[in-house]
Structures are given as C-alpha cells and as structure tokens.
From TrEMBL:
It comes from the Bacteria. This is Nucleoside-diphosphate-sugar epimerase. One of its GO terms (molecular function) is aldehyde dehydrogenase (NAD+) activity. It comes from Dactylococcopsis salina (strain PCC 8305). Transmembrane segments: none annotated. GO terms for cellular component: cytoplasm. Residues 3-226 form the NAD-dependent epimerase/dehydratase domain.
C-alpha cells in the first residue's frame, strides 16, 4: 500500500507512520514547512511540505497513492484563532476530500472526534446518535462538526471514506495527559478540578490499528467510535496513586476554578496568551460530558484495544523512564 498521512509529524500521525512502515507500506507525509519533525526521527517516509488547503500541494502528495489518512487538524481549547482553526479543520478537510476524489484514491480514512456528538449530558451514545446540543462548546467542536458534514455529504456521493471518532488519545509520548502524569509523579499536583468528569480513553497505537483496519474492512460512509473505555478523572488519579504511592490530588473548589477561568480569559485575550484555565476549558471540566460506546468498532473492525488500565500503566512506566534519563 502507498499511503498519504496528513499531519504526519503529530502525535497520532507519527504513530501511524511508524506502524505503516513496520508493515512495509510506502508512506508519504504531508507537513507544514515549519513543522517540528522530531517525532519522525528515524522514519523513512517521503515528506511533502505545504499548506493543507493548497490543492497543488495535495495533488503532489497524493500522486500514485492508494490510501489517504487525513489526520491533520488544529486542536486546541481555550483562547484560539477560530478563523485559522476553521481554515485548517473545515477548508483543509474539504480540500483533502475533493483532491482525493479527483485523484481517484481508493480509500480515505478521516480522523474525527467524539466531540462531533456534542454534549450528551452523561448519556452513553453510539454512532446512531444525532447531535442535540444547541450551539457549540468550542471552536474546535464547531470546526470538526462542520468538517464531518463535508465528509458525510461526499460519502453519499460515492467518496470511499471511512470516519473514525476517537475519544481521549493517550500514549507514552502523549503531549497532553503525559505532562499531567509527569507532574503527578513529581508530586507537584496537590489539587485538580473535575474529579467526577468522565473521560474516554484509547491508546494511540490502538487508534492506529483501528484506522488501518478501517482501510481493509471498514465500510465506505461508516463511522466508528474508537474508545477502550472510560474513567472519571478522580478514578484515573486514584489508579495512578495506587500504582505509584503518590498521593492523589484533592478536588479543587469549583467556585475557585470558575473564578480563575473568568479572570484569566480577558487577561489572556489582552496579552495574546493561552492561560491554563479559561471559560471554555472550565466549561469542558464541569458542564460538558460526552460518553460513548465503541461496540461497533470491536465487532465490525475486529478491533481489540488494550485495557484502560494498561494504557495508564504504560504512561506511568514511560514517564518514569523519561525521568531516569
């Protein structure tokens, strides 16, 4: 297989590249000219540098390609440039899909997010769920939802595309929760907000397997939720504490967290700074809950992810290894 991976230098993209190369597939990676390529160290892929919206660049990247994995996205919560995010997530997705269609690519896998379902208010939903939330919780939710509409519309017109919708993506080099685990192991987390917030978890390598399985047996136009299970934030920290002996963080007072978010939001806007807490991030902590059922992927894609506990154990070991270097 000759495959194009957009966003090849990112967390998910780089793991996908390494797995494809391990299978013996020929890989092309689309990256921005200014991208940090450290995650692709020792990889053999061919790189095409350019803008995700530039059709000429996309045509070059897709030349002779059998499969396109569209992973590139602008992912951020808090204070963001919504216009720039829309350009990458919406216009970029449309450009990728239309170019793939014009190039006659035989299979496309689009990496979406369970966020397209909106706030399910704690209900566990599957791929048949229709979004009920009025409005959007963030620019990220809005742009990924609109991108999904483009993908689905083109699928009805015959585009051979399959959508995977991952929950929270974890791994040893996880740029998000990995940093939290590092701080936890160092004893620096005394308080943490939202212990009751449920979070879906999938290991990045299991997501990669699901994406490859989607190219082989996934049905065109179908959606597949990719999640190994869920824990609340409190349960995650309790598990980490049990395994390491480090005290679990105490619950930070919600009124205090909301006050800090309200204060830092205008400060961040004035200073063009992304604060650790903002109104949007606080909203995700306390007011929005998306829970999902990934049975369809397990049955239709023969997907067998590692357990949530295994994912967390790996995070602990990876961070310990990093600390000892």
């Amino acid at each position: 297989m000759k495959a194009l991976v957009t966003g090849a230098n990112g967390f998910t993209g780089s793991h996908l590249v390494r797995e494809l190369e391990a299978r013996g597939d020929q890989v092309i990676g689309l990256v921005r000219p200014t991208s940090d390529l450290s995650r692709l160290r020792d990889c053999q892929l061919s790189l095409v540098k350019g803008d995700i919206c530039d059709r000429a660049t996309l045509e070059t990247a897709m030349s002779g390609v059998d499969t396109v994995f569209h992973v590139a996205a602008y992912v951020e919560l808090g204070l963001v440039d919504a216009r720039a995010m829309a350009r990458v997530n919406i216009e970029g997705t449309q450009a990728v899909m239309e170019t793939a269609q014009a190039q006659g690519v035989s299979k496309i896998v689009y990496c979406s997010t369970i966020g397209v379902f909106g706030d399910t208010q704690g209900r566990v939903v599957d791929e048949t769920f229709s979004r009920e939330q009025a409005g959007f919780s963030s620019a990220y939710d809005w742009t990924k939802y609109e991108a999904q509409q483009i993908v689905d519309q083109m699928a009805t017109q015959g585009l051979p595309v399959v959508t995977v919708l991952p929950s929270g993506i974890f791994g040893g080099d996880d740029p998000h929760f990995g940093k939290i685990v590092k701080a936890f192991l160092a004893g620096k987390l005394k308080f943490w907000p939202g212990r009751d917030r449920a979070t879906g978890i999938v290991h990045v390598d299991d997501l990669v397997v699901a994406m490859i399985q989607a190219t082989e047996i996934g049905k065109n136009g179908e959606h597949y939720i990719i999640s190994a299970g869920e824990l609340t934030i409190g349960e995650m920290f309790d598990f980490l504490s049990q395994k390491t002996g480090v005290a679990t963080p105490k619950e930070a007072p919600p009124w205090l967290i909301r006050s800090i978010g309200n204060f830092l939001t205008p400060v961040g806007s004035i200073l063009r700074w992304q604060p650790p807490l903002s109104r949007e991030r606080v909203h995700y902590i306390y007011d929005r809950c998306v829970r999902v059922d990934a049975t369809k992927a397990r049955t239709d894609l023969n997907w067998q992810p590692r357990s949530v506990e295994s994912v967390l154990n790996e995070l602990i070991e990876q961070q310990k290894n990093n600390a000892s270097r």
